[in-house]
Design a protein that fits this description.
85 residues; alpha+beta; ABC transporter permease; SH3 type barrels; single chain; 5 strands; Protein_Veg
Length: 85
């Protein structure tokens, strides 16, 4: 992943509308894993629309700092991988 906040934002802007797998620190040794679509990027945060059948909430937002500090890990899913599932 890029090493500055500006690089992280540019990298995410290139993937708008693409499916991703998100792994985030949920606190107290819990890890949250979910899939969704990167829907929007703002100056300080990005928004992910989550799959409804798996999650209670519709969307989540994280800051670019969360990626920099590795509190959030994002893996973009390839179209060929999504079809094979």
């Amino acid at each position: 992943m890029p090493k500055t906040l500006a690089d992280i934002k540019k990298s995410l802007e290139c993937h708008l509308g693409k499916r991703l797998q998100l792994r985030a620190n949920g606190g107290r040794k819990k890890t949250v894993e979910c899939e969704g679509v990167l829907s929007e990027t703002y100056r300080a945060v990005f928004v992910v629309e989550l799959d409804q059948e798996d999650n209670a909430c519709k969307r989540v937002s994280y800051s670019y700092t969360d990626i920099l500090t590795e509190a959030v890990e994002i893996t973009f899913l390839d179209d060929t991988v999504a079809v094979a599932k």
